[in-house]
Amino acid sequence: MIGFGKRLRELRLENGLTMENAAKIVGIAKSTYAGYESEFRQPSLDKLSLFADHYRVSVDYLLSLTETKRTGDLDSLDAKELFSKKHLHWEGVPLEEDELSQIKDLLEAITAKKSNKKLDKDMG
């Protein structure tokens, strides 16, 4: 798995930045930034968030917890795909399989209703 430092370096180079430019983005010294890329130092959560915002990626991507690069990828996520994931939660509270099943049933009912309305409109 690629480490945080290597991922940070790749993003910096993709964006045509020097270490000094990247350091200025979050208001740190170039030497501190170099420590992040070498993984000698670990950034604070607020610095991680600033890098993620600047590069338009998720913090999870920066930390190599996901390969989904752009935060915008979630803007059009199919709910069916979401429910195929394990360990879903709502604000940190785990959702059990029976609860997820109820939510899936509700979503299926909503989409069926919308499909029927569209058919009626197309035919009417």
From TrEMBL:
Pfam families from the UniProt entry: HTH_3
PROSITE patterns: HTH_CROC1 (PS50943)
Keywords of the record: DNA-binding
InterPro entries, alphabetized: Cro/C1-type_HTH, Lambda_DNA-bd_dom_sf
GO MF annotation terms: DNA binding
Domain spans labelled HTH cro/C1-type: 8-62
SUPFAM superfamilies per UniProt: lambda repressor-like DNA-binding domains
Transmembrane segments: none
Official protein name in the record: DNA-binding XRE family transcriptional regulator
